[in-house]
Amino acid sequence: MLLVDKLILREIRMPLKEPFKISSGVEVDRRILLVELHDADGQVAWGECVAGAAPNYSPETIDTAWIMIRDFVAPRVLKTEFKSPGVVHAHLAHNFRGHLMAKAAVEMAMWGLAAQIQKLPLAKLIGGTRDKIATGISLGIQKDPEALVKRAAAALAEGYRKIKLKIQPGADIQYVRAVYAALGPDAHLMADANNAYTLGDIGHLKKLDEFGLMMIEQPLAWDDVLRHAQLQKELRTPICLDESITGLERAQDMVAMKSGRIVNIKPGRVGGFSESIAIHDYCQANDVPVWCGGMLESGIGRAYNVALASLPNFVLPGDVSPSARYWAEDIVTPEWTMDADGYVKVPLDKPGIGVRVEAGRIETLTVRKEAVG
Ligand code: OSB
Ligand code: MG
User: What is the pTM of this model?
Assistant: First the structure.
């Protein structure tokens, strides 16, 4: 039984070690929205909202999410008994459109709380079968191909099992060609365009086929499914959808229309764990491999991603880079680390999210705070 009687919203700011540039924008100082749930027995569980400062990935921002959680999500969840975290998603979806990142922050924290109460590792609670997650790195757009080659070579040497190159018009074919030439055909390379192209670019995008990329992520519009099917027909490289998959039904659309062959599941994008698990199960039944994406989360959000990625159909490396790739100091202990073979361990020896949340450090980093309930 879950019964939350107080929710605290917080904004913290954490400077990234280096700016992270994608086709639609750049992050320098990550503004992070955290939620803290307090239940009737004094248990505290933390969650993280993946929304960014600007609406360049999804229409949500951390400021819209703040309002939606305070005014609509929290009132639905507070002082309401849930028999399991699995029913929270439907409760939040009823006559409440969109705002999936706001909902996800709270829904996931409910899963974390349930794991804590049941004294189970979160990965075990959801039926995870892996004890370590193969890890990929997502490399932002660099000033020239040489700079990207340097970053990619370093990532390969560190053990990363997948190297994702952010691309955009003017920083695509030449950049990928340079990395492919330097790292060789055995490096597991992929590209992510974050919506930078249109169907008019089919001829141009076909040039990527010669590099045998694992996949190209979300080349077309953030909410498109149909046009990706037209593009996939022309490309040898598998398309992976990220932004477009906002729930199970969009994954079903992708399969029905053949808009892509791989799904990037980010629990924060699809409204939380229940929907992520539904997409995972559907993809597994339809022979569509999935992997867990990232949103430059702190160690709290990472904990949820790592647990989710322990499910069996997460067969491709996830964007679950270790804490030190982003931050001088994370807000959890121990920090997330990756071994020399490119794996992050699933903390199966600890209940809940498997890392200690450093509440004192969070208090120091807090620039805004509001309690509901
Ligand atoms: O498209 O996957 C993306 C970060 C912010 C917004 C969108 C994306 C990303 C990443 C980062 O690729 C992955 C990570 O957390 O390391
Ligand atoms: Mg992406």
Answer: 0.98
